[in-house]
């Protein structure tokens, strides 16, 4: 479905996801159920992948193209599976959103640290329901608990680099619905 693709920062920011579910977003999504405010796009079944990406050699602590303003003082993370990076991203959102922002390529996705932090202040809790590494990315199913009491069940397809520093460089909203 070409017109309903929600990508980039809109697929990662809770205030954008909430607008899509509420029908306030300026995107063309297929409404599945008017009573629940559900929005959905097509999803293919997960492909089981057990292979790991090749491990990059150690060396530089920062890439020359690294323009992300939220870099921390600690050392560079070792190359890990894309699934593990996505799990770490969702874990950090609750405890240290600035560090979570370091795991996304904000400059590529079109978001700033301020916008990212501002959007996540609307969230009281995140539940990671499932994370599956596939050939086309990492499919994450999460439940976002908003401060106003609304719960969103969200499926996102995330693309992670296979180089150090690893970053989430693309995000696509697969589905979002009020839970």
Automatic annotation (TrEMBL):
Sequence ranges of Low complexity compositional bias: 34-54
Annotated region described as Disordered, given as residue ranges: 34-78
Protein name: Uncharacterized protein
């Amino acid at each position: 479905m070409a017109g309903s693709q929600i990508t980039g920062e809109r697929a990662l920011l809770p205030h954008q996801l909430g607008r899509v579910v509420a029908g306030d977003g300026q995107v063309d999504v297929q409404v599945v159920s008017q009573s629940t405010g559900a929005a959905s796009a097509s999803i293919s079944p997960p492909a089981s992948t057990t292979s790991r990406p090749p491990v990059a050699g150690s060396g530089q602590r920062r890439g020359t193209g690294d323009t992300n303003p939220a870099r921390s003082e600690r050392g560079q993370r070792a190359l890990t599976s894309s699934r593990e990076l996505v799990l770490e991203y969702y874990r950090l959102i609750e405890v240290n959103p600035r560090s979570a922002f370091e795991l996304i390529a904000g400059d590529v996705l079109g978001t700033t640290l301020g916008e990212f932090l501002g959007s996540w202040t609307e969230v009281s809790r995140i539940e990671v329901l499932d994370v599956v590494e596939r050939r086309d990315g990492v499919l994450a199913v999460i439940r976002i608990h908003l401060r106003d009491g609304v719960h969103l069940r969200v499926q996102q397809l995330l693309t992670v680099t296979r180089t150090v520093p690893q970053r989430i460089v693309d995000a696509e909203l697969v589905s979002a619905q009020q839970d």
